[in-house]
Amino acid sequence: NAGVTQTPKFRILKIGQSMTLQCTQDMNHNYMYWYRQDPGMGLKLIYYSVGAGITDKGEVPNGYNVSRSTTEDFPLRLELAAPSQTSVYFCASSAPGQAYEQYFGPGTRLTVT
Amino acid sequence: EDQVTQSPEALRLQEGESSSLNCSYTVSGLRGLFWYRQDPGKGPEFLFTLYSAGEEKEKERLKATLTKKESFLHITAPKPEDSATYLCAVPARGAGGNMLTFGGGTRLMVKP
């Protein structure tokens, strides 16, 4: 099992550009999450999904969009990138009944200049 | 509002020097407390779940304990490979009940 994979590992965006962060898991987990991590601030939940076709906002959803068309994939879309979106983004997944035992991907380091 | 605070922010230990990390929380109706380890440049890795005051969990040199207001992660005779950031989290109030509120983490550095 590869677990949770994320692409790209690094990306530099100019203000106003858009991009999609990819996330795939091969553990057949229903639940998937997107977090951002800023230095010393812990992890903040952006969006989550409890299954294909179902998504919901987390704590900091503004400026982001998600979709979940399959169990495996949960892409995160950034529209009109802003410097405040400079962060490290982590995707995670978990199984029903063990929602808080989350498996994380390696992260995408995004810089917006 | 649920809050999770970890202390200290950073901790330097010599190899073999035991210590404890603190995670204090203010939530109503605790539904579990979770510890994660995060190595530099990697995603967090799940360590422990604690559900009730008095509960303890152990893994190698780590032992996690829980009281009604805080949790401790005790590290006994640490080795350099224990160096990492340790995060604690509690379930957040929110739709679906799948959200975690994370603390800011404690960065542990163990020197040989």
Describe the structure.
The complex is a heterodimer of chains A (113) and B (112). Chain A is mainly beta. Chain A has strands at 4-7, 10-13, 19-25, 31-37, 43-51, 54-57, 64-66, 76-78, 87-94, 103-104, 108-112. In chain A, the strands form two sheets. In chain A, strands 2, 4, 5, 6, 9, 10 and 11 form a seven-stranded mixed sheet that branches. In chain A, strand 4 and strand 5 form a beta hairpin. The model of chain A has no long low-confidence stretch (mean pLDDT 94). Chain B is mainly β. Chain B has no helices and eleven strands. In chain B, the strands form two sheets. In chain B, strands 2, 4, 5, 9, 10 and 11 form a six-stranded mixed sheet that branches. In chain B, strands 1-3-8-7-6 form a five-stranded antiparallel sheet, with no helix packed on it. Chain B is globular.
Task: Show the helix and strand layout.
The complex is a heterodimer of chains A (113) and B (112).
Chain A: E1 4-7, E2 10-13, E3 19-25, E4 31-37, E5 43-51, E6 54-57, E7 64-66, E8 76-78, E9 87-94, E10 103-104, E11 108-112
Chain B: E1 3-7, E2 10-14, E3 19-26, E4 33-38, E5 45-50, E6 56-59, E7 62-66, E8 70-75, E9 84-91, E10 100-102, E11 106-111
Parallel strand pairs in B: 2-11
Antiparallel strand pairs in B: 1-3, 3-8, 4-5, 4-9, 6-7, 7-8, 9-10, 9-11
Q: Can you describe this structure in just a few lines?
A:
The complex is a heterodimer of chains A (113) and B (112). Chain A is mostly beta strands.
